């Protein structure tokens, strides 16, 4: 083993040292026949990691957690959470490990974290393993989200394990290496609060302030400032999901980060036809996490965070509740502001237009899209062409052409900025039929379709020759579409 290469890497173990009450020291299972399926070279460079090393046996050992620097302290993190509204007091990393923190080129720490690295004491009866398809899905979708400018955890690598994993059938196993500004979640605070140890909640809040919101430390009430910052971050994040038609699929409180990054791409999907009731997750039978419910659920999750922070907000319980409610009340205003600004940008509205002029056009367009089940991504990109006088691509997408023409005439009268529209309306997203095609091929050993799709979605705003099929909606015979998390 190349000890020099491994010893040059520092995995600092901040969380493991500071929160022994919320971490169990654990090791990844050894991968006997590893195969590096995909490596994010640009992210590796940002983390100061040599890609040649990562492709070596020691590097792949690092990426799967069974060969680490001597001073590394990998842990399974503890957290609680509301899952589909039901509280679970002890969840934690059942098949995941925090290897430690590494310094990014921006000077900030990043968590290096595994999924599929073996069963931990939080395993709850699961095997702790992962399979190729869902791990590559997280890689694909998280990198697409990053390219769209949406805060997200990122994927560094997926390594095949060479072992078969029992799901509906025997499927090839894999480990995902992901990177986050931290893995502290709403569920982390719920777990700390449930211990009854206010000091632990305070230490966790101070950790979150230091890593994510240092300005809060200067506030008169730093813990209230922390909560307010998380509310703002999540309001912005969910609004940006909605603007690109992203459906997370499993917005449990343990899947909401304090940092405001998107995390845990399990049964997620991008909408094809615009449908506010869109649900893709196979386990969301009630539609709790449907597209239109995401802002409501985010606000509900934040209320659970507020409950955990109450002892820090004020010594008087009644006053603490009042402060939390006042801060949470800002969520809807902040969400609406980000969403409205984003929708104005998608439609090319120039600054200075009054809301009573723009809002009716937005509402009317969304009603047309819903009624006609119009492809959400395609229509907004086609409107860029319509703003330049070439309306036919957009007209062909909308069944009620007469209604669309009447709408478009009023919209064009406002002088939409086509170039600005093209900067925010993607050509390429991980369309569901293309993702399934690529993941099925990769499961069978052919990574070429995944590579092509990654090429498209990591340059989402730039139309490229030869990528025409990646800009087209799903065929009529595709669906109904359901996604699975792979556990």
Task: Note down, in words, how this protein is organized.
This protein is of the alpha+beta class and 487 residues long. Among the domains are: 3-180, no CATH class; 349-416, no CATH class. The chain is 44% helix and 12% strand. It contains 19 helices and eleven strands. It has helices at 3-7, 14-18, 41-46, 51-54, 57-64, 132-147, 186-194, 198-212, 222-244, 294-313, 317-328, 330-346, 355-372, 376-387, 392-395, 401-412, 418-424, 432-443, 448-457, and strands spanning 23-25, 35-39, 75-77, 81-83, 86-88, 96-103, 109-115, 154-166, 170-180, 246-247, 269-270. The strands form four sheets. The protein has a five-stranded antiparallel sheet with strand order 2-8-9-7-6, sandwiched between helices. The protein has a two-stranded antiparallel sheet with strand order 1-3. A two-stranded antiparallel sheet has the order 4-5. Strand 4 and strand 5 (86-88) form a beta hairpin. Helix 10 runs antiparallel to helix 11. The radius of gyration is 23 Å and the shape is globular. The relative contact order is 0.11. The mean pLDDT is 95.
């Amino acid at each position: 083993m190349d000890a020099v290469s491994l010893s040059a890497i520092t995995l600092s173990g901040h969380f493991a040292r500071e929160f022994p009450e919320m971490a169990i020291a654990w090791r990844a299972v050894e991968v006997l026949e590893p195969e590096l399926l995909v490596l994010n070279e640009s992210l590796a460079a940002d983390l100061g990691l040599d890609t040649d090393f990562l492709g070596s046996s020691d590097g792949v050992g690092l990426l799967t957690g069974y060969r680490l620097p001597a001073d590394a302290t990998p842990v399974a993190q503890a957290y609680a959470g509301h899952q589909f509204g039901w509280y679970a007091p002890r969840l934690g990393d059942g098949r995941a490990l925090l290897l430690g923190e590494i310094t990014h080129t921006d000077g900030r720490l990043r968590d290096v974290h595994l999924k599929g690295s073996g069963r931990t004491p939080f395993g709850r009866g699961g095997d702790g393993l992962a399979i190729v398809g869902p791990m590559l899905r997280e890689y694909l979708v998280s990198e697409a989200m990053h390219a769209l400018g949406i805060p997200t955890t990122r994927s560094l690598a997926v390594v095949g394990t060479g072992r078969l994993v029992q799901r509906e059938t025997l499927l090839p196993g894999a480990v995902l290496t992901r990177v986050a500004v931290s893995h502290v979640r709403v569920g982390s605070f719920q777990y700390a609060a449930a211990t009854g140890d206010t000091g632990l909640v305070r230490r966790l809040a101070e950790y979150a302030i230091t890593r994510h919101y240092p300005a809060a430390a200067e506030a008169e009430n730093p813990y209230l400032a922390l909560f307010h910052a998380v509310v703002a971050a999540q309001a912005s994040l969910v609004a940006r999901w909605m603007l690109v038609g992203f459906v997370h699929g499993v917005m449990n409180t343990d899947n909401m980060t304090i940092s405001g990054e998107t995390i845990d791409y399990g049964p997620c999907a991008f909408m094809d036809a615009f449908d506010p009731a869109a649900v893709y997750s196979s386990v969301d039978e009630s539609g709790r996490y449907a597209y239109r419910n995401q802002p409501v659920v985010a606000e509900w999750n934040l209320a659970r965070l507020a409950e955990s922070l109450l002892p820090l907000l004020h010594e008087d319980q009644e006053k603490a509740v009042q402060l939390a409610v006042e801060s949470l009340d800002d969520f809807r205003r902040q969400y609406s502001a980000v969403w409205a600004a984003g929708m104005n940008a998608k439609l090319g509205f120039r600054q200075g237009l009054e809301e009573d002029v723009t809002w009716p056009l937005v509402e009317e367009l969304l009603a047309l899209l819903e009624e006609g089940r119009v492809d959400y991504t395609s229509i907004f990109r086609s409107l860029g062409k319509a703003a330049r006088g070439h309306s036919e691509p957009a007209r062909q997408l909308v069944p009620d052409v007469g209604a669309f023409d009447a709408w478009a005439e009023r919209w064009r009268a406002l002088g939409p900025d086509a170039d600005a529209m093209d900067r925010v309306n993607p050509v390429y997203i991980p369309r569901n039929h293309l993702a399934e095609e690529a993941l099925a091929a990769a499961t069978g050993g052919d990574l070429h379709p995944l590579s092509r799709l990654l090429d498209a979605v990591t340059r989402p705003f730039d139309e490229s020759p030869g990528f025409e099929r990646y800009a087209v909606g799903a065929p009529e015979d595709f669906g109904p579409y359901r996604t699975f998390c792979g556990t």
